Predict the structure.
Amino acid sequence: MHQDGHFYERARRRMIAQQLLARGIDDSRVLEAMATVPRHLFVDSPLRRRAYQDSALPIGEGQTISQPYMVARMTQLLALCGHEKVLEIGTGCGYQTAVLSHLCRRVYSIERIPSLHEKARRNLRHARCAANVMLKCGDGLLGWPDYAPFDAIIVTAGGFASHAWMQQLGIGGVIVMPEGKAGVHRLVRRRKRADGAFDEEYLDDCTFVPLLEGVGHR
Ligand code: SAH
């Protein structure tokens, strides 16, 4: 057990240096959060020793935990200071949720697959990141009107923004998501202006699992 701890801590440090710092992640709060969150606790035990490798990994139900760099990149694009209310669509295993929990006031995260929703709840508790996290099983396309407006929204499945998200984003708030049709996504960041219009920036090409409608099993 003790030796395992060393293994994961070294792997995590290497991930920070080789995958994040070397590729331009420079928000010190993001780097600190990713140096703190035990990513291996969010991956099922057969794959655990690969938790810090430079790739996405399966988490069950045909879904994946995003590559560390992509988690860092999207989180950095949110430019969080610590006081924000953040909506996350696509909880998956809860890793991105855990990173966000270190960087903002409260995270509201929605997952459409019941077994992953439950898995994320267990993982977040185990990793001691649950205190400022609210999880919901449902269709994230509807957002979470009870807690709107949000200062930031992050979508971790690829598709097109829903009207509900754009409405539930507060003035000055940012939404970061992989946009596009199946398999060909582009990261986009939009900021809501005081007049209700959006400034938008198209960024990296990427590939995510698809954003799907309704509650389901796949
Ligand atoms: N951030 C997660 C990524 C998981 S993959 C992690 O690091 O583990 C994306 C997740 O989005 C999947 O679990 C998928 O089931 C979920 N998803 C897709 N469409 C959704 C929707 N409409 N509402 C909520 N979750 C959705």
Q: What stands out?
A: The first strand starts at residue 57 and ends at 60. The mean pLDDT is 97. The two ends are 34 Å apart (CA to CA).
